[in-house]
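ligand=ISE
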Amino acid sequence: MTHDLRVAVVGAGMMGADHVRRIATTIAGATVSAVVEPDSARRAAALDLGTGAVGFADLDAALESGVVDAVLVATPGQFHEEALLKVLAVGLPVLCEKPLTQDPRSSWRVVEAEMAGGRQLIQVGFMRRFDREYQDLRKLVMGGSAGELMMLHARHRNPSVSDGYGQTMLITDSVVHEFDVVPWLAGAVVRSVEVKYPRRNARTPERLREPILVLIELDNGVLVDVEMNVSAGFGYQVQTEAVFEQGVARIGEPGGLQAWQHGRFSIAEHADYTTRFSEAYDRQVQAWVDAAKAGTIAGPSAFDGYKVAVCCAAGVKALETTGPVPVELPDVPTFYAGRGDYPGRRD
Ligand code: ISE
């Protein structure tokens, strides 16, 4: 393809609007040609970002318009399956914000539809894989210079959550990221998930029981603990400490300006994920655009999205279960075999 990739952004909420702005200002070789959003005020606000895009109230009209080469789905997760099936039916490349869909059955339907079309068209927006520090940590794991990886201690802290955030979203909206990135980091697959509850935070909204401690066991013996804490108050933190046989590595420590003032030392912390992962989002969308133009994908596949959906289902069960909940994954379909992104374990 010699011209810019003409992208339809579907959903103009927080992430959709962020991607419209990103494609318009930061991404090379792509333009936003369509904004699909049923809410007219949101649609108008996204169109106002100055992209020259056409507004549509529904995806069918956008796909029939002839102005779309690729689709970025940024609607809430419950609408992903329908959108993905429509885009697959017309054979366009698609970047789908996480999760692929909200449960294993619908994710599998999407995988089957992609396989039936004979081409990998779906990339799932697990942006942590595009964060430089995560990539460096993965290189350290795969390179083996610190010996074998034994444990990961992950901290996933949000200052607060909106009123619509319910208990299962601790897993399906938040820990969902660890279910993608941890196997990718460790070159392994998830074997079981367990949830434990520490003392409750008085700041936690009535309807939630958190923080939670999630224990993820991988099939290579690596054990991962994730502190999932959505009432942390002070800021947004996503950190990991990796414990190797011959050393320790950390990512996600606060960076940037260090200030000494009034007898104190301070470093600013992020307020939310749009700044913490802003470079990762940029790199993810650029890689997707370049790959789409070359007729391929450059990140987590639909099958990766399906595996995460299976882990989330186990995680949701673990919220109400004492002890580990097993995770059972099918063999990798031939269609996806060898196309995975796990050196040392090509699934
Ligand atoms: C949100 O939807 C995200 O995807 C963020 O990365 C995560 O940190 C947050 O917990 C989710 O609610």
